[in-house]
């Protein structure tokens, strides 16, 4: 079942869905081009969801940047910031605004985590789970 246009269709879908070239080749968790952060067919943020919830510590700085980028509304910001622990804040952030914001929100969070929690992100890129 070899369709000549299938590869082009898949590439087009991938670029539209993940906002980057489908060019290939980074290590697990590394972008393969542009703003594409895919691990085993899932966005890096989704793939490492549990680890991010458990390990991100500077949530307030992340919330500030997400608010500046308009990923969060002021109300979402206040609701998340009112939680008492980093774990609760990250869980609320991941289950709310990031989930509903889709790939664009995940891309913004990825970029912000690279800035704010660089060592954590490096560690996660080295891991498969």
UniProtKB/TrEMBL annotation:
Biological processes per GO annotation: inflammatory response; innate immune response; regulation of apoptotic process
Statement: the UniProt record of this protein carries the keyword Cytoplasm: yes
One cellular component (GO) term of this entry: cytosol
Subcellular location(s) per record: Cytoplasm, Cytosol
Keyword Cytoplasm in record: yes
CARD domain sequence ranges: 42-128
Keyword line: Cytoplasm, Immunity, Inflammatory response, Innate immunity
Listed name of the protein: CARD domain-containing protein
Upper lineage: Eukaryota, Metazoa, Chordata, Craniata, Vertebrata
């Amino acid at each position: 079942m070899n369709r000549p246009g299938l590869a082009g269709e898949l590439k087009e879908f991938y670029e539209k869905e993940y906002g980057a070239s489908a060019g290939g080749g980074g290590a697990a968790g590394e972008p393969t081009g542009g703003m594409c952060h895919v691990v085993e067919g899932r966005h890096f943020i989704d793939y490492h969801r549990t680890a991010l919830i458990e390990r991100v510590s500077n949530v307030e700085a992340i919330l500030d940047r997400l608010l500046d980028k308009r990923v969060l509304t002021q109300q979402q910001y206040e609701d998340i910031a009112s939680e008492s622990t980093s774990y609760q804040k990250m869980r609320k952030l991941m289950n709310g605004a990031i989930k509903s914001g889709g790939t664009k929100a995940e891309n913004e969070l990825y970029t912000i985590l690279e800035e704010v929690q660089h060592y954590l992100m490096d560690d996660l890129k080295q891991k498969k789970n």
